[in-house]
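[step 3/7] fold_predict: job queued, chain A
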Amino acid sequence: MPILHRTQSVSALMPRFVERFRCIGPRCEDTCCSGWTVHVDKKTYKAYRKEAGPALDRMMASMERLDGMGDSAYAEIKTIGEQKQCPALQDGMCSVQSSLGESYLSNVCHSYPRTTQRRNGQVEQMITLSCPEAARLALLAEDAFEFIDAPVHLRESALTEVGERFGVAPAIMTETRIFCLNLMRTRELALWQRLALLGAFCDSLTVLCAKEEQATIPGLIDDFIQAIDNGDLAATLEVIQPDHESQAMLFATLWATKGFETTSPLEQEVMRQISAGFGAGADGQVSAIELVGAYRRGLGRMDEALQDVPWLLENYIVNEMFTELAPFNGYSPYDSYLQLIARFGLLRLLLAVQCNTQGAVPALSVLTTTVHVHCRRFQHAPSYAERVKRSLYESGWAEMSKLYRLIRT
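[step 4/7] structure written:
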């Protein structure tokens, strides 16, 4: 069989867990071949029309051409059955790949869960934690976010070029991202303190960009490093008191706005666990008092649940920041920060209620699966993610002085 999509080998910067990742195929408990609509690029679609065989016959019978969507989304695979599976999925494996080879996968299927970007000549590869195996590798290993250079094999279509943002020169963008990532790994500070300091930095960075003073960003970074090293900023944060009631009510409401429908048995089980952790009755309802109480009790047990992997939430945040090019995504650095806080607040709520148990704390497998389900439901729904972030603005919580109370645990 001739090669359809050729690849090239390049060196890429990546977290160590990305280099370790391999798809586990039929052993995956929540396959990426179900529950999602998959677009097929023009070259792959035309190749499928020329080939024959049971796998492609099933695929083409469920394929629909799209008008006006461009070559990257030339057609759409319609899922089938109660679990909304791709028609090519057979015994946990892609029958198209098995029969024709990996080069016949569509660009989307070939890339997922990886994303590869090039910025100022530097190639970076990252992985979304909506993949269960990726979530385990990223969250459980302490060295998962040691950054390395490693060879990757890419299709040309998989490499996205990223330009400058907010008028910041590429070299300063790199320096800023390194500072932010290093800040989130400064374990002498509590995680909430790191997030609070990141917010203050992004707020100041937004002001500099608005004033077109991007050249002074290295000085801002130096000022923050000095203030962190001498303890001034951390001491200032200690006067902030947590607002557990607002944290629970706000993020529980945002979680509920997504709805609870899913075709995945794994997601259904996690949703059931979360509902039970909230203290919901048979009708799925829970009072505000019960909700806040469940959240507080769960928060009180999270350190115990994470005693063997105290870096779990840190690793999640670092992966989000690296993947999203924070703080240079969004409409401004501060808007980028709000996106991160929206994701963090939702995930912290879900992990806390999972820890609201009467007996032993949940196993790490339960917590990593919760992260995976959170990412799959939240981060692959751009309109929902935008709605969650926008709600912080509309409810008045986007102001930094108030946001501290949502971060403090």
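[step 5/7] annotate
Strands lie at 8-15, 38-40, 63-65, 75-77, 89-90, 93-94, 114-119, 122-127, 147-154, 159-161.
Residues 33 and 111 are 13 Å apart (CA to CA).
exit 0
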